[in-house]
Structures are given as C-alpha cells and as structure tokens.
Amino acid sequence: MSLQRYFITLSYDGTRYHGWQIQPNGLSVEECLRKALTTLLRQPIETVGAGRTDAGVHARKMVAHFDYDGVLDGQQLAYRLNRILPRDIAVQCVEPVAQDMHARFSATSRTYHYYIHTQKDPFLAAYSCEMHYPLDFAAMNAAAEWLLSQQDFASFCKTGADVKTTLCTLTQAEWVRLSETSWRFEITANRFLRNMVRAVVGTLIEVGRHRITIDEFRNIVSTRSRSAAGESMPAHALFLVDVKY
User: Fold this and answer.
1) What pLDDT score was predicted for residue 1?
2) Of 13, 54, 67, 215, which one is the catalytic site residue?
3) Could you tell me which of 65, 23, 60 has the C-alpha nearest to residue 46?
C-alpha cells in the first residue's frame, strides 16, 4: 500500500513549550504530537509543521502533515489524539490530502495576532502584553501600512537566523482596537522570518511612544540591520491564528 499524506490542524498554549519544533534540550509541541501519533499508529511518525513558533508563542491554528502507510479514520484519530495529548494541545481535525501537499511549502499565507492592553487586568496578563505608557495608534498604523509596500524585512530578523532570503510579502499589518484598554496587531504574509512579528511590534511601539518618527521607522527598515530596530516583544502575547493553502 502506498503512503497517504494527512494534514493535522491543531491549537496549543505555548507557555510551557520551547516552541513548535523539536529541540534537543527542551519540550516542544511537535515532540508531544509525534509521540502521540507514534503511540497510536504503532510506527515511527515524522511530522512537518507549517512554521516554527518560538518558545512561549501560542497557536490558535497550526497545521502539520505526516505520511502513513494505510487508511485512517481522521475523526477517530483526532478523538484518540485528544485523549492522550496534554491539556494545552488540542487537535481539531485530521484529513487526507494529496501527496504533493506540504504543510510548510504549500501554505500561501500565515496570520499572527499580537495582543496588548493598557490597564492592569489579571485576566489578560497571561496572553497579552501590558503597556504602561500612552501610545499613538494612528502613527503606529501609518507606519504599519507602509510595511505593505516593502519586501525586505532583514531589520526584523533574528540575528544569526539560518534563512536564505529575508524577502516577505505582507498583505495585512494593522492595529485593531478590541476595547477601551486593549488592542491587537494583525499581520499576514506569505512567510515570516524568525522573531519577525515581535520585532515589528517592538519597533511600532517605539513609533507609538514618539521615540522615533515614521520617517525614522522607514530608515530602520532600509538599513536591513536588526540592531537598528526596536526590542523584541514578549512571546506570551503572540498567537499564530491562521494558515491558508
């Protein structure tokens, strides 16, 4: 029997994980998923994710693929996976796809949300970043909109990252107000660089605090130097929310 490829759609709270990808010295989401699949299917299972979320980053929707020599009942497998996976990882569905479909390379876009709040709130603290100073969201959105016309985001790529290109195509970058005291940054692109979203948010925050102007923000992007950009924001407020194919 020939191998059949399956897509798994899952979500997870990344708080206690060292990111999505398997690490030699820390627990990862992928490691937990592979172990669960290997246990249930009684053969070694390799998985490939749509991307790599960093340590502490969450996913409302992550997609991964694996190959299996046989026909699976996706609904039953999803149910059984959820019975043995930790409570902070949940599988939504398992479905067969064409053999040439690839969780990472077939994806056409990915969307991340970054949450901030401007008033102390015990119910937001775990998944949103508390800001203690006034922010000019109009200026932040003007700077964010300009990013849509750019392609090279080397200034927001983690130093030393193993990437062949720093070119990305952004189709969305905006701050959305959720309440009187909470906002989220929504960003969509065909691909993202390591640490890119948190670095973009950190630099936009500098614009919002009037520590840099929009023109200076543009110059930072043009320099293609990570050291010129703002600080990387905390991981706990970042969510991968969608992957499209």
Assistant:
1) 59
2) 54
3) 65
